[in-house]
Amino acid sequence: MATDRILEVENLTVKYGPIEAVRGTNFFVGNQEVVSILGANGAGKSSTLKALAGLIPHEGRITFLSKDISRTEPYKIPYLGLTLCPERRGIFPDLSVEDNLLLGAYTIRKNKNLIKGNIKKVYALFQRLEERKRQLAGTLSGGEQQMLAIGRALMNDPKLLMLDEPSLGLSPKLVDFIFDSLKTINKSGTAILLVEQNAMIAMEISNRIYVMQNGKFAISGNTKDVDFQTLKMKYLGV
Amino acid sequence: MVFQQIIAGIITGSLYAIVALGLVIAYKVTGVMNFAYGYMGMISAYIFFTFFSMIGMNYILSFFIAIAFGAFVGYAVERRLLRPVRNISPASMVIITLGLLLVLEGVALQIWGNNYQQIPNLLNGLPLILRFEGGIIVIPQQNLLILGVVTAVIIALILYLNLTFQGKAMRAVAQNEEIAKLMGINSSLMMSISWIISGSIGALAALLVAPQTFVYPDMMLSLQIMGFTAAVLGGFESIPGSIIGGISIGIIENLVGTYISTNLKTTFSLAIIVAILIVKPEGLLGSAKSRRV
Q: Touching check for B182 and chain A: CB below 8 Å?
């Protein structure tokens, strides 16, 4: 079973000064799985993803595709097939939609044909982006920016796509659309590690979930074994 | 007469424009306003003087050695002086560049003294003379060279930033360093490259202007001030803005110098620019978005 794990995290700790945001968590993502980390605001979810992407200092051991990436510099991580679609989308507002996508393919920049193919795939998934490919990304609506952020993260064919709150600030209809797209992406072979406050929608697409509270996992397990009502009342504060 | 002044203004202005460009590219990618910029270029002018006039090396070869030296200085200043304090105190990076200005001035004085050293023009042939109804325009060959070189540099830079993968990556770092890293962009390398480009441009500006200003420790003072002004007028973050800013200042300055007073040309031009900035504080092509403090 262990060989099927593409990401294995042991004893991950993230500190901001004296404050421990993530306190020794252990988790894994299996091949082609969708895993969600749920929890209220400030539970340590985003810090977990940022640590995995190498953006913030952390302790513990992170193994991705049998390689220890705990000390890997952030810009080298996407080369390994681990890509983070960041919180608040993080698109480049003063670059065109297409240039944003091209930058997502920076790690495969030598392979023009692969880039062309991947751009086509992204446009097939999000037609709105193709219609607006020459537009500056900053002029897109919130939903379109989220599509762009996800599309851009897919441009280098990640083995594991990490997403930080993709539902943030979107209308329920758009959230449904984005999560349908995530399902499609997963079906084509990409594993997904999702961080979400919107537990209900995240659980719809997840194989397994971890519920985070004060930097630790309070519950974890297969989605179908977790009772949503208890979860909601006890851990999500809604 | 007016045309002659406008042409002369475009030529002076094109020098302001590349100084502004060099400042802006380093500022956009690393966020540092480099107050030592002109003085870094000045050192390259002395390097040229040393190789060409003192050692007697070929003009073109000395020229490229001096540019390469400018590139190296740009790299070294960013990597060795600014990078270590980058995440600690962005404000002190500006102070470091101010300190560097004084150090470079002192170093130049120590090594080369404070004599005005002459550098010949590269092109000394007959000037280009255009005659037309109502006037005549005379453009010295060296000025044509300046215009040609500056235009070529500007075009090359715009093509690099807009069409190459590396150029786009550099713009990505300028917009959001952290997100650029997530794309696999080595932002540290991009910062170095931006200062290498900036340093070479500063050296180039100094070499182009040196035959007129002579080479001495403060030779770049006025060009640096006007370059900053051009950058501010253009919005400080915009490359087309820097070009338009530089050329407009050059033209305004020459017209004021001719028709109002030579003594007042800098004062008057700066007053006009202050007036423009009062009406349009974000600069001609700057974005009006507010900044977090």
A: yes
A181 domain-assigned: no
ipTM score: 0.91
Residue finishing a domain among A157, A178, A206: A157
Tell whether A54 and A10 lie within a shared domain: yes
- For residues A65 and A139, membership in a common domain is answered with no
Q: Locate the DSSP E strands across chain B.
A: 128-132, 135-139
Roughly what angle, to the nearest 10 degrees, separates helices B239-259 and B2-30?
A: 150
The pLDDT tens digits for B176-213 are: 999 999 999 999 999 999 999 999 999 999 999 999 99
Tokens describing residue A219: 């519950």
In-domain check, residue A174? no
The verdict on a CB contact (< 8 Å) between B183 and A90 is: no
Chain B neighbors of A86, CB-CB under 8 A: 178-179, 182
Other beta carbons within 10 angstroms of residue A125's beta carbon come to: 17
> Do A151 and A208 share a domain, yes or no?
no
Q: What is the C-alpha end-to-end distance of chain B, expressed in Å? A: 48
According to the model, what pLDDT value does residue B291 have?
43
pLDDT digits (tens, 9 = 90+) for A70-126: 999 999 999 999 999 998 889 999 999 999 999 999 999 999 999 999 999 999 999
Closest chain A residue to B175 measured between Cα atoms? A92
Q: What is the pLDDT of residues B89-102, one digit of tens each?
A: 878 888 999 999 99
Q: Is A93 on the interface with B (CB under 8 A)?
A: yes
CATH of the domain at A35: 3.40.50.300
Contact assessment for residue A58 and residue A22, using Cβ atoms and an 8 Å cutoff? yes
Residue A179 has pLDDT above 70, yes or no: yes
Question: Which chain B residues are closer than 8 Å to A79 by Cβ?
Answer: 184
A81/B contact by beta carbon, under 8 A: no
| A2 Cα to chain B: minimum distance (Å) | 27
On chain A, the residues whose CB falls within 8 A of the CB of B165 are 102, 106, 109
Q: Are residues A31 and A103 in the same domain?
A: no
**What local confidence, expressed as pLDDT, does residue A1 receive?**
44
B175 in contact with chain A, both atoms CB, cutoff 8 A: yes
- Tell whether A84 lies on the interface with B, counting CB pairs under 8 A: yes
Element holding A138 (H helix, E strand): none
Both A229 and A135 in one domain: the answer is no
CA B152, CA B150: separation in Å to the nearest integer? 5
Domain coverage including residue A201: 1-81+159-167+190-238
Task: Please say whether the beta carbons of A202 and A38 come within 8 A.
Answer: yes
Contact state of B182 with A78 under an 8 Å Cβ cutoff: yes
CA separation for the pair B69, B51 (Å, rounded): 12
Interface test with A, best of B24, B182, B186, B192 (most A CBs within 10 A): B182
Supply the pTM of this predicted model.
0.90
| % of chain B at pLDDT higher than 90 | 69
Residue at B291 is within a domain = no
Structural domains of chain A, count = 2
The domain containing residue B248 runs over which residues? 2-279
Q: What is the CATH number of the domain that holds B201?
A: 1.10.3470
Between CA B90 and CA A226 the distance in angstroms is 48
Q: Looking at the domain assignment, is residue A53 inside a domain?
A: yes
Check B184 against A53: CB less than 8 A apart.
no
Residues of B in contact with A49 (CB under 8 A): none
Q: Are A73 and A121 in the same domain?
A: no
